[in-house]
Amino acid sequence: MKNIPVVMIIFGGSGDLAHRKLYPALFNLYEQGLIRDNFAVIATARRPWTHEYLRGQIADAVHETHTEVNENDLADFTQHFYYQSHDVTNVGHYETLKELAQELDDRYSAQGNRIFYLAMAPRFFGTIATHLNDQHLTSSGFNRIVVEKPFGHELASAEKLNQQITASFAEDDIFRIDHYLGKEMVQNILPMRFTNPLIKNVWNNSEIKNIQVTLAERLGVEARGGYYDTSGALRDMVQNHIFQIVTLLAMPEPKDLNASSIHEAKQELLAGLIIPSEAEIAQHFVRGQYLGSDTTFGYLQEANVAEDSATETFVAGEMKFKNGPIANVPIYFRTGKELKEKKTRIDIVLKHRSNPYGQAHSNNITLIVDPNMEIYITINGKKISQTGIRRENLDYNFSKDELAEVPDGYERLLHDVFVNDSTNFTHWSELQAYWKFIDAIESAWQKADQAGQKPAQYLPYRMGPKEADQIFERPTEHWIYE
Length: 482
Ligand code: NAD
Known about the structure:
Elements: E1 6-11, H1 16-31, E2 39-45, H2 51-65, H3 71-78, E3 81-85, H4 91-108, E4 114-118, H5 125-134, E5 143-147, H6 155-166, E6 174-176, H7 184-187, H8 189-195, H9 197-200, E7 208-216, H10 225-228, H11 233-250, H12 259-270, H13 278-284, E8 286-290, E9 314-319, E10 331-336, E11 343-350, E12 364-370, E13 374-382, E14 389-396, H14 400-405, H15 409-418, H16 428-450, E15 456-458
Parallel strand pairs: 1-2, 1-4, 2-3, 4-5, 5-6, 7-10, 8-15
Antiparallel strand pairs: 7-11, 8-9, 9-10, 11-12, 12-13, 13-14
Nicotinamide-adenine-dinucleotide binds at residues 12-17, 20, 45-46, 86-89, 119-122, 148-149, 179.
């Protein structure tokens, strides 16, 4: 693999994301030779760490995520890391950072290439982007910026943040990361749709009755109550992960697999995203909050959550597009905290066709993204010794060895940033469409709040409020995964 010269600067270098995901992923890329001799990483945060302390943290992070580690390689790898105490709101600190970056660039012959990774609370993204620009942190080689989610709080703040970032970075150099796009089964959606005539030929609005996307979490808000209460399930999960999955499910076939062709196909689809009316939102969307149990707090009792909060920990709703192969097919989605189990699952429900046997069921195509990875097609067949029809699943599974080979989403996506492949990152025009949809729902909910309506309540560790079973367009529709 090509050795890419670069100085990478991580803002939020002492944080959870950097520790659990970025450092282990960088080590794997180092082991593969993508970064080797000509790279340096500057981790910044406010704490007064030393280079040595940071290196110890990085070694810990690698040990915590790997069963086998080549200790010589790890020792060499950590020597490429430097710590810079930095308050992102202090303009003077950017000058020190710039000097260190230049010094490391010279020492490692990094050819003026820079990657800036914003792994911090989203309220700082705009400040960092502004100071990267006014303090001239970009250099003479490539300059790429990776921005974590959420990108904005609604369309207006997303637009403002985008302006702050585009002051120093071109759209092609902005990597808006959504780690769902690095997941094996999410990356399997397009090959599954376009390489199998069996699937491709039914992927249209005369054969598909509806699509159902579920992102269920078992955990509650944990220690993140304060942040979560300003966000909610719609902004936290639908605006990014669910929309990315739905876009891959509904987009037209790209003319080839170049990043620009994939983004073009997505944009073609999203130009036809239907923004639901208030009446449609009232009918096809449900927001919910989890209740407490003997051993757990309800959402309203969680630390740092307002006791009369209307923030949703669950949402179910519908998306539809005017164009693309499944134009006007309802795509139902739901996501929530404290649900039955952690599971990300997609069900494609085919229309039922009348037949001489009468009682046959619809065929479904199911993709399990998390925590296991699986595709299965539910089909009908003959019962062996009785008359009648039985249902069976045709399974596509992964062996233990194959599962062990699957890289973490962050490793895949960081690799793509190094090699400048933006296929699996969110383009600004996509994000605009997502926010327009989210803003319409939030605005309808605000009106509902003013009218005294509250989110539906649900018992923990089930499948959300019962109202979510009533969002369907037709009485014959129901959730396949219960
Ligand atoms: P965190 O709170 O663990 O880390 C935040 C970092 O910012 C720390 O290093 C802290 O020292 C630093 N910081 C705070 N104020 C600062 C200031 N004024 N100047 C300089 N540094 C300052 O957060 P996290 O969980 O690592 O999340 C970071 C980003 O990644 C967020 O946008 C989050 O939404 C996103 N994200 C995190 C995860 C995850 O698994 N943790 C997953 C997906 C996305």
